[in-house]
Amino acid sequence: MGFLVQLLAFILSLLLVSMRAEDIINSPQPCDFRAIFNFGDSNSDTGCMAAAFYPEVSPYGETFFHQPVGRASDGRLIIDFIAQHLGFPLLSAYINSIGTSYRHGANFAAGSSTIRRQNRTVFEGGTPFTFEIQTEQFNQFKQRTGKFFNQARKSSFRGHFPRPDDFAKALYTFDIGQNDIAAAINRVGTEDSHAVISDIVEHFSKQVQNLHEVGARTFWIHNSGPIGCLPVAMPVHNNATNHTPEAGYLDQNGCVNYENDMAREFNKKLKNMVVKLRAKFLDASLIYVDMFSTKYELISNANKEGFVEPSEICCGYHKDGYHLYCGNKGMINGKEILAGSCEDPSKYISWDGVHYTEAANRWIVNRILNGSFSDPPVPITHSCRALKL
């Protein structure tokens, strides 16, 4: 009897949340976002690593920008489409000093970034711009722009920075964790993966709480995509002998099961973290966005949606166990190879084996902006109002 009462109470709570979410969706008053502040890795880096170290080379950026612009794609990223959807210009990378404006926000994301600190140099695929550093950069940005805005009352430069009260009315977006999961996968068997993932999520939680402490109130948090479905992870690009993987190693889409299972565990713990922070911060709106399901849906229906097989890579050379990444030249079997791009990137999901094409990013973002893959299920334009649920 007690279990039945609890079950009915749970169902009623779901119905109430659904009804309130419907009220938000139908509300004529969307959020009055003044800016966007983004934190993440190469999935949303709009120029940090290119400004700090080596710039991207052609053919990166060829589809939309017609030149390399610091994005790991042929065109726009999901964060670019989000900014445009909300009526903002594309976000400038925080450390990019050339031709930048931060009036409507800033992007702190950096390629190869992780939530936890990693014992890797930049040349080993690491980065100094961990999530912790990104939030510290934001704090510095907020403090310095506030002082500058108040001191330079008559300066035209004030138009290049957010107003002090814009920070509380901004949207804070997050897409990070995939590199942490990849690092944990590489160390399977040498450490407790479950404990590592729990620790990663705890580090994430700490930084979100730090941002809340300095005024952030609306959080749009992406979970990890299906890392086992990245073409460079698939045996088809890594198996020079064409050896058939053992049963259960791959799923029906050719994705590596145990890698996706690691991502699922991270996502489950990340969602639990979001739920806990909602209970702690009643003045904040925290939206959990299921990017894994969105991307996996695209991968599962690639041909139906007009794409080639999801294992195919548009830019780069990945054959017979050899890997030459997009835009690079190399000698393979005595022959110089230029790892150029495919004829039509819009037909591909994967741009370079790790990152998505603009066409795939557009497909994904069209599924997430309306709240279909969000918890609670509210569109991004009304995400600030989810605190009322």
UniProtKB/TrEMBL annotation:
<dbReference type="InterPro" id="IPR035669">
    <property type="entry name" value="SGNH_plant_lipase-like"/>
</dbReference>
<keyword id="KW-0325">Glycoprotein</keyword>
<dbReference type="InterPro" id="IPR036514">
    <property type="entry name" value="SGNH_hydro_sf"/>
</dbReference>
<dbReference type="Pfam" id="PF00657">
    <property type="entry name" value="Lipase_GDSL"/>
</dbReference>
<keyword id="KW-0378">Hydrolase</keyword>
<dbReference type="GO" id="GO:0016788">
    <property type="term" value="F:hydrolase activity, acting on ester bonds"/>
</dbReference>
<comment type="similarity">
    <text>Belongs to the 'GDSL' lipolytic enzyme family.</text>
</comment>
<feature type="signal peptide">
    <location>
        <begin position="1"/>
        <end position="21"/>
    </location>
</feature>
<keyword id="KW-0732">Signal</keyword>
<dbReference type="InterPro" id="IPR001087">
    <property type="entry name" value="GDSL"/>
</dbReference>
<protein>
    <recommendedName>
        <fullName>Alpha-L-fucosidase</fullName>
    </recommendedName>
</protein>
